[in-house]
Amino acid sequence: MKKNNNETLTGSHNSCDYVKAIPEELPFGHNESSNVFGSIPVCSLNRRLKAIAATILTIFIVAGCASMHERDVASTRQDQVVFAVVGDMPYNANEEASLTWPNGEIVKAIRAVNPSVLVHYGDFKAGGGSCTDDLFEKSKRLIAGMIPNRTVYTPGDNDWTDCDRDSTEIRFDEMERLQFIRNIFFNNTGLEMTRDIPGLIRQEGQPENAMWRIKDLVMGTLHLVGTNNGRDEILLSDENQALDAVDIRDTLNEIWLQEMFESAESAKGLVMVFQADIYEENDVTQECSKENRTECDGHKRIRDAIEKMAFIYEKPVLVVHGDTNAYCFQHQSKEVANLWRLNGPGDFKVIDAAQVVFDPNDTSMPFKVYGLLDPKAPPAVCDYSR
After folding, report:
1. Which residues, 6+ apart, have CB-to-CB distance to 182 below 8 Å?
2. Within this chain, do residues 233 and 108 fall inside the same structural domain, yes or no?
3. CA–CA distance, 382 with 380 (Å, rounded to integer)
4. For residue 188, what pLDDT is reported?
5. pLDDT over 50 (residue 70)
6. How far apart are CA 266 and CA 30, in angstroms?
7. Are residues 321 and 266 part of one domain?
8. Do 109 and 34 share a structural domain?
9. Domains in the chain: how many in total?
10. Are residues 85 and 66 in the same domain?
11. What angle do CA 175, 180, 185 make, to 5 degrees?
């Protein structure tokens, strides 16, 4: 009867044969009966050989596992995407100095990380500052100089919609300022800011909306601003013309959002960046319409569209914005488990930039966020009362 594997290994466990360890040729004068080598049990020899073999095998297995682990770590790092975000600054001379190369503390920290791309999410000046040509040109040079040719900018409300405020020393027509921003940031030399970002494209009719891909991560910007997305406090521009422009911008944003999700189908994640805090509580909850263009929530349509598309998409989605000082990184929706948002640093409160690491292999937390000057992670709850 053929033995099973266990019997093969243990069948002779209680018996042991002996052999004389005698060389093939005995020395002169030596007889077999006086064997100085003695008798060695075969089973003992086999056990020793097996132990040696097992030790060698263990060494190879451990070495192989270590090598596999190293390859896995290397593969994980190779899959990761690291980018940086900054915005809602500079609001004063100290913040400007911190963002100015080569001595600025924040810009040095950004360059030390060497992110694939840096995104400035708007508001390059405080709300009370005058929107002069000189300030805009200076701001463009400062932002472009942080990570030359790999910096994306998306406008904030301080940068154009709020330029007509009574609180500013020199007031400007907001629609004229928007056109000036487009002229210096998104035409000719302004486009040099993004020259080294492979495959970056811009939306026709709204060039501040950009999209690009880094490895398996699609990234893009949307022109969403505070001041109820530009629907409130239209003080110098023709109100109807300004609201018409908002309606067009909303439509183009929704088209661009759809294109971002479609492009991300072949990727493993999506990041969108804009200035407005579309999640800040609003006393008015009604969606804007042709009949009601001002007494409404100017962000509701795009907020609902993001949540709906993210739910269908299922892969990780991160919204990055500024506008308010509730610095935080949190799961945004209980119903949409794959949607996160980062309310970035800035706005007088957290004077820093943030590093974001996307790891498609980490299914539980694909996005990780760290400050650059203060390397702690942001609060996990967006608390507007702090």
Report:
1. 207, 208
2. yes
3. 7
4. 81
5. no
6. 82
7. yes
8. no
9. 2
10. no
11. 125
For residue 4, being part of any structural domain is answered with: no
Radius of gyration of the chain (CA): 33
Q: Which residue has the tokens 């263990």?
A: 58
Domain that holds residue 85: 81-371
Q: Tell whether the model's pLDDT for residue 12 goes beyond 50.
A: no
Residue of 358, 284, 354, 321 whose CA lies nearest to 81: 358
Query: And the tokens for 206?
Result: 């709204």
> Does 114 map to a domain?
yes
Q: Which pLDDT does position 53 carry in this prediction?
A: 54
Whole-number Cα distances in Å, 20 to 46, 50, 251, 307? 15, 21, 95, 82
288-340 tens-digit pLDDT:
999 999 999 999 999 999 999 999 999 999 999 999 999 999 999 999 999 99
Domain assignment present for residue 378? The answer is: no
Residues 130 and 66 in one domain: no
Q: Counting Cβ atoms within 10 Å, is residue 303 exposed (0-12), middle (13-18) or buried (19+)? A: middle
Q: Residue 94 belongs to a domain with what CATH number?
A: 3.60.21.10
DSSP reduced 3-state for 84: strand
Give the span between the Cα atoms of 80 and 77, in whole angstroms. 5
- Mean pLDDT of the chain, nearest integer: 86
Using CB atoms within 10 Å of the CB of residue 105, give its burial: 0 to 12 exposed, 13 to 18 middle, 19+ buried.
Answer: middle
Percent of the chain residues past pLDDT 90, beyond the cut: 78
